[in-house]
């Protein structure tokens, strides 16, 4: 028999999604603004975008306020998050690091293997003739939650930190998208790395974000005649 345990990360943060759209879509949304339909622009761009990119969920692993919990029914365990790869460790394999940094059996931590950090490729960037809308939501309290399966007799005290692998995403992705997000301080102003993937005993844990409080809205980046991005308010999209 088996059962599921819940793991969650909790913090404030900023979720950012990007939508890329063409000159034809830009022409249409200019017309929408002229016709007093500015409130519909965000939905229109999302429905007619060439590509959507999830830029950030906002759970930063080095945040002073991030919390991680594992729950088994009504029992709850507070789990510290450790960054294992300092500059001195960069030539050391993950397995070697685990061997050299053993904890007491009673210690349960999550280890962020910085050597396996994901860096998005430039293929994620908009093409030279595409404009960008960032949907930015700054939330007061968010939860990034997933579930993993254990044997029915396993308790929180039985969990072994070596069975978990936490993989991070670098928000300093470079390229055009990086320039208008991380480069402008919209995301990652105090921390470059966020929670991206998590596994237990080599099985991936699907993580879902929910949040309460906060606010935000769309940010438009329109290319000028030289192809450079200019941040533009929706209301200013009138010819």
Provide a descriptive summary of the structure in words.
With 239 residues, the chain is mainly beta. It has one domain (2-236). The chain is 14% helix and 41% strand. The protein has four helices and 13 strands. The chain has helices at residues 23-34, 41-48, 94-100, 175-180, and strands spanning 2-21, 51-56, 67-72, 75-78, 81-83, 110-112, 131-151, 164-170, 193-200, 203-205, 208-212, 215-223, 229-232. The strands form three sheets. Strands 1, 2, 3, 4, 7, 11, 12 and 13 form an eight-stranded antiparallel sheet that branches. Strands 8-9-10 form a three-stranded antiparallel sheet, with no helix packed on it. It has a two-stranded parallel ribbon with strand order 5-6. Strand 3 and strand 4 form a beta hairpin. Helix 1 (23-34) packs antiparallel against helix 2 (41-48). The chain is elongated. The relative contact order is 0.25. The model has no long low-confidence stretch (mean pLDDT 86).
Outline type: elongated
What structural class do the secondary elements suggest?
mainly beta
Topology, number of strands: 13
Radius of gyration: 21 Å
End-to-end gap: 66 Å
- Enumerate how many helices there are, as a single number: 4
Count up the domains.
1
Question: Which regions contain 5 or more consecutive residues with pLDDT less than 50?
Answer: none
Q: Please trace the helix and strand order, writing H or E for each element.
A: EHHEEEEHEEEHEEEEE
| Overall pLDDT | 86
Main sheet: strands, sense, barrel: 8 strands, antiparallel
How much strand?
Answer: 35-45%
The share of residues in helices is 10-25%
């Amino acid at each position: 028999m088996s059962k599921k345990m819940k793991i969650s990360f909790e913090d404030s943060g900023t979720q950012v999604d990007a939508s890329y759209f063409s000159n034809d879509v830009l022409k249409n949304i200019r017309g929408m603004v002229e016709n007093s339909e500015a409130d519909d622009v965000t939905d229109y761009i999302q429905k007619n975008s060439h590509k959507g990119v999830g830029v950030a969920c906002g759970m930063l692993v080095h945040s002073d306020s991030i919390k991680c919990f594992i729950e088994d029914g009504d029992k709850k365990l507070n789990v510290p998050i450790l960054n294992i790869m300092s500059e001195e460790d960069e030539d050391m394999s993950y397995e070697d690091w685990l061997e050299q940094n053993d904890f007491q059996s009673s210690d349960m931590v999550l280890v962020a293997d910085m050597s396996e950090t994901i860096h998005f490729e430039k293929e994620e960037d908009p093409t030279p003739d595409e404009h960008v809308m960032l949907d930015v939501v700054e939330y007061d309290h968010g939860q990034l939650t997933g579930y993993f399966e254990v044997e029915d007799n396993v308790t929180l005290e039985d969990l072994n930190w070596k069975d978990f692998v936490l993989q991070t995403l670098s928000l300093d992705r470079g390229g055009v998208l990086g320039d208008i997000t991380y480069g402008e301080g919209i995301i990652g102003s105090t921390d470059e790395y966020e929670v991206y993937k998590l596994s237990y005993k080599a099985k991936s844990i699907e993580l879902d974000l929910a949040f309460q409080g906060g606010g935000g809205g769309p940010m438009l980046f329109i290319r000028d005649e030289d192809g450079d991005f200019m941040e533009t308010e929706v209301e200013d999209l009138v010819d």
